[in-house]
Predict the 3D structure of the following.
Amino acid sequence: MRFYGITAALTLLGTGIAAATSGSQPDLGYAELYKLTQQFYDTFQYPNNVKEAKKINSTVFSKNCQGRVSDTRNFEGRELNTEYIFGLFVPSDSLSIIGKPGSYEIIQFAANQNIASATTRVNFTFPAFGNVTFPIVISTWMTYNKAKEITQYDVIFKWFGNILQLLLSTIDKDPIKAQAKGAIALSKSICASHTKFCLGKDIQYESEEECIRFMTEDIRFGQPFELGMNTLLCRNVHQKMLPFRPDVHCPHIGKSGGGQCADDTTYVQKVTEDYYKNSAWIPTGEQPPPIPPYGGH
Ligand SMILES: *[C@@H]1O[C@H](CO)[C@@H](O)[C@H](O)[C@H]1NC(C)=O
Ligand SMILES: *[C@@H]1O[C@H](CO)[C@@H](O)[C@H](O)[C@H]1NC(C)=O
Ligand SMILES: *[C@@H]1O[C@H](CO)[C@@H](O)[C@H](O)[C@H]1NC(C)=O
């Protein structure tokens, strides 16, 4: 306890140094970063996400925002992030493994300077699976700029494999049959969307039959971590994006996968990827750790 005063003094000193040395990164403070995290999840929740998606270039994100979502890929810029973070989770007529986000609670949180890390439990309802509702845990790291826009995010859908298995089990108790039935239903839905939205120069398949054959025979269903690979699951994710900008998104459900659904990245490339350029992920204004013994017990 007697070290409390020293610690507090160091913290104050640290804050002063942070403000002076953090370069272009603002020191937004813990309370503000918590509020921004809440605001993000309020906006993410249906039906607020519908309104946000309509903005096309949501200022929740900075112009140069860089984002990464576990099991899928990286998403850059305002327009693409508005589509994938808000538009993707809006319910539609298409059969989708993506659910509708509802109420949430932040269960873990830490923040410093312009960086916020949260674990949030969100109730999702799945229209394609008889409106079953499951909680999903989402881990986020986010950085913010002075305008309080998200400049970077790194998102993990925790235990996603479990949830996919659980959803498929609502189709059939036998996992093999469930996947086979799911593959047919998802393929039909993707190919119907292709017929509806991918017209003229955006056409990827000569006919709906050819499309269904490709989806069910030429590519694999996909493991839960293969939503950014050459799989049916990946094309199902991108199917929901077709109405937004067919010219951008039709290639993603096409044969090549349009740079989103392709087997072009290895595990090691993914793990060692040096992606983020907008902000440090470690607070730059931090004091180096004190040299023991420093009474930190
Ligand atoms: C959204 O931003 C992009 C990139 O700056 C721009 O090309 C596009 O016209 C904007 N769309 C709208 C509706 O503001
Ligand atoms: C999620 O739904 C369950 C069941 O209806 C409910 O008990 C729980 O409080 C909800 N969680 C949140 C974060 O709203
Ligand atoms: C799921 O809920 C939506 C919205 O309440 C409703 O329109 C739809 O018919 C429901 N689907 C099923 C399979 O119950």
Observations:
- The two ends are 9 Å apart (CA to CA).
- The longest strand covers residues 100-112.
- Residues 1-22 have pLDDT under 50 and may be disordered.
